[in-house]
């Protein structure tokens, strides 16, 4: 028997609009079109209004995200959740635009925070980053045998600037992220499979994505390599997409 849904105060209200923006450099990134097709299928199934921008320059990464934020804040209806997918070559903390210039991930993440995007204040913001974070490769390893109430009910309710955000990186800091020329990236394809096949809170689904990726092997330049995503969460509640 599946676990019952938590009470409303324990789960985000997903009854409003769901919006998604995908910024993807496809040039010199074979297989990225397969990832875009998979993501579009996922967003359609999960009820998102989805926009794709191909081959943004470094400046356009920033500009498109700011346009997305302005459009969300200008809406008259209630927005429940926003997904941002960023796919490009990269280094730790940076993405490479189509023009070979670099954009800082931190600058992109700030656009939708609780200070800069009032419409998404206290709402879940999910960033999916499919990019290298360094040059290291992982050959894999063999496996052997108090609750404090901070404020009173009478205090004005405030929220930290950086809550309700989920960053999902395709790989851990310092490591390469692999992509198949035809089939797309192991990360995006696995994430789409899990998010469309399974129900449950998103962090539980991401554990399944990590498990599947940890079991898989990627062959890179004739050598077997391992890869796993990294998840950073400041979500305050359970986030259900199904």
TrEMBL record:
UniProt cross-references to InterPro entries, sorted A to Z: Caspase-like_dom_sf, Caspase_cys_AS, Pept_C14, Pept_C14_caspase, Pept_C14_p10, Pept_C14_p20, Pept_C14A
Main location class: cytoplasm
GO annotations of cellular component type: cytosol; nucleus
Coiled coil: 88-115
GO biological process per UniProt: cell differentiation; positive regulation of neuron apoptotic process; proteolysis
Domain Caspase family p20: 29-136
Domain Caspase family p10: 155-242
GO MF terms, alphabetically ordered: cysteine-type endopeptidase activity
Cell location: Cytoplasm; Nucleus
Superkingdom assignment: Eukaryota
Family named by the database record: Belongs to the peptidase C14A family.
Complexes and interactors: Heterodimer of a large and a small subunit, both processed from the precursor; the mature active form is a p17/p10 dimer and the intermediate form a p20/p8 dimer.
Protein name (record): Caspase-14
Organism: Myotis myotis (Greater mouse-eared bat)
